[in-house]
Amino acid sequence: MAEFADADMGGVDGEEDQVGAGQNADAKTSLRAGEDGDEDADDDQESCDENSSSEDEESSDASSDAPEIGLDQHGRIAPGVRGPVNYGFRAMHGCISLSEELLADCKTVFSARQAEDGEAYSGGETYFVRADETPQSALEQLALDIFRFHADSLIYDASKSGAEWWTLVLDDDSDVVFHWDKDYGLEDYGVNVFPHISTVTYLADPGGATLVLQKTAPPRYSDPIEGPAGPLVFCSRPRAGKHISFDGRLLHAASADLLPLFTGDDADPMAATQGTRVTFLVNIWFNHMPRDAESLPDKVRKKLSLPAMAENGSEASASGTGIAPAGKLWTRAPGVAAAGAEMGPATLHVPEDAGANAPLKTLRYAFGEEDNRHEVVLTVPRPPGPAATDSVLLNFEPGVAPRVVKCTNEGCTDAAGAKSSTTTSSSAANANLNANAMNETDA
Predict the structure, then answer these.
(1) Is-contact 424 364, C-beta < 8 A?
(2) Measured between alpha carbons, how far apart are the two ends of the chain, in Å?
(3) Are 27 and 46 in contact (CB under 8 A)?
(4) Exposed, middle or buried, 1 (CB in 10 Å: 0-12/13-18/19+)?
(5) pLDDT classification of 44: cutoffs 50, 70, 90
(6) How far apart are CA 300 and CA 107, in angstroms?
(7) CA–CA separation, 283 vs 184, rounded Å?
(8) How far is Cα of residue 441 from the mean position of the Cα atoms in its chain?
(9) Residue 410: partners with Cβ closer than 8 Å, 6 or more residues away
């Protein structure tokens, strides 16, 4: 049966502990967005030559301004950041100074709406603050502080790096569907480019668990994404002041279905989500800014708290109108390691045969565009009891490991050709949110 044990944090795609991987900028892939090319298996460099013919003038214009993207052997931006980047699953507490002003600012910025049936993404927006900018509001300062925490001792181009950020303020019956954080402005050119690190900072206790799967998407948007998505799944229960981070290439979501892993109660998981879920989301980008990256509009910024006082005692530069400066929101100093700061997750081993006393339950989550739908198939055990921590690492045996399957009007087909209905899990069917502009992992 399933039992909790000490966590063994594994890497993704052969990256040892996911620390320092992707720094080799010599072996890289060069992609001109929006164009097709042939892959040479004997060459480390793959090039996509310009497609000289176009179906119409519009596609020709789109091709002409398409950027050339350099990717390393792990699918990250090249030339890469220099230094030991930690891409592993991390969770730490006491990172935020919580206040009513902070919550009010997050509610002001929140612009997401529930996705309607058939829509690929929500109508939310994200904002960007460069690493070399002076923050003009308390939330922009918080985003930069989180960026600097994860960028400590790394070498990068500050003029092309920074924090993509946004907030989510969701009702207790709202989930976030599976998605990848990426530069959605490049999707029209057929290229997937991901942030180096994705982060979630919880500002309240309610809400479903964050789920992060070991599933990356290919560099080309048109390439298939179905296949294995394991064997590890990282689950995080929200706790006010808690901060998590993970490899920005990984598929993730937020759902109440996994809350029984933490409570030990296999009853209605919605009972543990009562209240408003508030999260502050930051994607860490090095040497690349999302194509559609924009600063927070002044009309919104003027409603927010000002940044904290500068070290010399003067008020930080800001465009707000008369709103008092916030205190220092991010309280974790760069370079602080696991000593008292980070808590490793408890590991829950999921065997192929859990036995009659601990039957497995299969959850299905639909995601993607209407004409390109997929489904995450996730098999979870009955909880053996309350988890000792608010982070759990599910370790699946091969026969029950999660997977992504392709869906059509006739159903969803896995790699073996078996079909299933496209029914989603009960809580995922409640007002799912995707995040083109909200790239969430709200939990």
Answers:
(1) yes
(2) 27
(3) no
(4) middle
(5) very low
(6) 11
(7) 13
(8) 5
(9) 419
Evaluate the omega torsion of the peptide bond into residue 238 and state whether it is cis, within 30 degrees of 0: no
Of 5-19, 175-189, 199-213, 330-344, the poorest mean pLDDT is in 5-19
Strand bridging mode 391-396 / 346-350: parallel
Contacts with 377 (C-beta within 8 Å, 6 or more apart), sequence order: 362, 363, 364, 402, 403, 404, 405, 414, 420
Query: pLDDT digits over 257-272, tens only?
Result: 988 888 877 655 555 5
Nearest C-alpha neighbor of 119 from the set 311, 367, 422, 359: 367
Q: Find the farthest-apart pair of alpha carbons in the chain and give their distance in angstroms, rounded.
A: 66
Domain parsing of the chain, residue ranges: 86-420
What is residue 58's three-state secondary structure? helix
Torsion angle in degrees (nearest 10) through CA of 262, 263, 267, 269: -60
Whether residue 91 is predicted with pLDDT greater than 90 in this model: the reply is yes
Would you state the torsion angle of the CA atoms of residues 54, 55, 59, 61, taken in this order, to the nearest 10 degrees?
50
**68 vs 271: which has the higher pLDDT:** 68
Output the pLDDT for position 39.
41
In contact, 49 and 35? CB cutoff 8 Å: yes
Task: Match 């950041």 to its residue by tokens.
Answer: 81
> What is the DSSP-derived secondary structure letter of residue 413?
E
In the structure encoding, which two tokens stand for residue 153, read together? 């001792």
Q: What is the pLDDT of residue 92?
A: 93
**Which residues, including other chains, have CB under 8 Å from residue 33's CB and lie 6 or more apart?**
66, 67, 68, 69, 186, 189, 190, 191
- Supply the pTM of this predicted model: 0.80
Q: For domain 86-420, give the CATH number.
A: 2.60.120.620
Q: In what order do the strands lie in the sheet with 127-130?
A: 90-92, 243-247, 197-202, 277-285, 162-170, 127-130
Q: What is the dihedral of CA 79, 211, 93, 247, to 10 degrees?
A: -10
Asked if 216 and 178 count as a contact pair (C-beta separation under 8 A), the reply is no
Q: What is the DSSP string of 150-214?
A: HHTT-B--GGG-EEEEEEEEE-TT--EEEE----GGGGGGTB----SEEEEEESSS-SPEEEEES
CB 194 within 8 A of CB 12: no
Q: What is the pLDDT of residue 282?
A: 98
